[in-house]
Design brief:
Layout lengths: L2 E5 L3 E8 L2 E19 L3 E18 L4 E7 L2 E5 L5 E17 L1 H5 L10 E5 L1 H17 L4 H19 L5 H7 L4 H13 L7 H7 L4 H12 L3 H17 L6 H7 L5 H12 L3 H9 L4
Antiparallel strand pairs: 1-3, 2-3, 3-7, 4-5, 4-6, 4-7, 6-8
């Protein structure tokens, strides 16, 4: 889901997109309070080019918060699909951002995981984004080949500078999913149990490669993503059987199985009995 709503809206907003990213820039005349929410399917790098704010408050569903001033040169990073809620007070600033496809970062290591950060001093990123802004101001556009090369350079820098994948102990920690990613996957699965759910869809949902998600999910939850999905389908089926009389074939379709036989096998693996035996046992006195 794409959400980038910050009010009041910046003026002189300019944007340029290329194959692997999007550049945006704008400015704010003096504004008492600015509030908004950002969530995108891309990693987002934000830089305050000029000016700043007396106070910036940030809260995310990725277990990251910040409270302090905003200032020229400050660099922030929001991972793909991580919701960032912000409030600025006493704002007069010019800003720019670069959105990067998540696969650009994972290309530099399948186990790379970059946590969100706010207002760090990073001259390399600040300078790179400022140069994008300068070139765009001069020509009104950017060269796609240049943008593609610089976005790969930025992704490599982020992975190497902020990615958590060095040292054996840290490498082990990268296999664990943070709570916000587990919650997002769980919420998505519950909302789509009656439909086809691909592990690749879940990986894109939380900005990881399919292989990384499979390993990290199993390490964190104790089962593979597919086993988790099937178990939740069976639990939904049990809830339906508690209140309705329905055939096994119809029940299979309602909880996302295209094949009644596959549903029956999965149901038996999870519960120890077949769906029909479960229904009979539930109907028996004391069942």
């Amino acid at each position: 889901m794409y959400l980038r709503r910050v009010e009041p809206r910046a003026v002189d907003w300019r944007s340029f997109a290329w194959r692997t990213g999007i550049f945006d820039t704008g400015r704010r005349p003096y504004t008492d309070v600015v509030e908004g929410t950002i969530r995108t399917p891309d990693h987002l790098v934000l830089v305050t080019l000029r000016g700043g704010a007396a106070r910036l408050e940030v809260d995310t569903d990725c277990d990251h918060t910040y409270a302090g001033p905003d200032y020229a040169g400050a660099v922030s990073f929001v991972p793909a699909h991580c919701e960032r809620r912000l409030r600025l007070r006493g704002v007069r600033a010019e800003w720019a951002s670069i959105a990067l496809r998540p696969e650009l970062v994972t290309a530099f290591g399948d186990g790379v995981d970059i946590a969100p950060f706010t207002n760090v001093d990073d001259p390399f990123i600040a300078g790179l984004v400022a140069e994008f802004a300068r070139l765009h101001a001069c020509d009104g556009r950017l060269d796609p080949t240049y943008c593609d090369a610089m976005s790969h350079a930025l992704a490599a820098y982020l992975a190497g500078r902020y990615g958590r994948r060095t040292g054996s102990a840290r490498r082990r920690r990268t296999w664990k999913l943070p709570p916000w990613r587990v919650r997002r996957i769980a919420d998505y699965v519950e909302a789509h149990l009656g439909e086809e759910i691909l592990v690749a869809d879940l990986a894109r949902l939380v900005g990881l490669s399919t292989g990384h998600l499979h390993r990290a999910f199993r390490e964190t939850v104790g089962v593979t993503p597919l086993d988790y999905i099937n178990e939740r389908r069976v639990r939904r089926a049990i809830a339906i059987l508690a209140t309705e009389r329905v055939t096994v074939a119809d029940l299979a379709l309602r909880v996302g199985f295209s094949s009644p036989s596959h549903f029956a096998r999965t149901f038996r693996r999870v519960t120890g009995v077949t769906p029909s035996r479960y229904v009979r046992a539930s109907a028996e006195p004391g069942g």
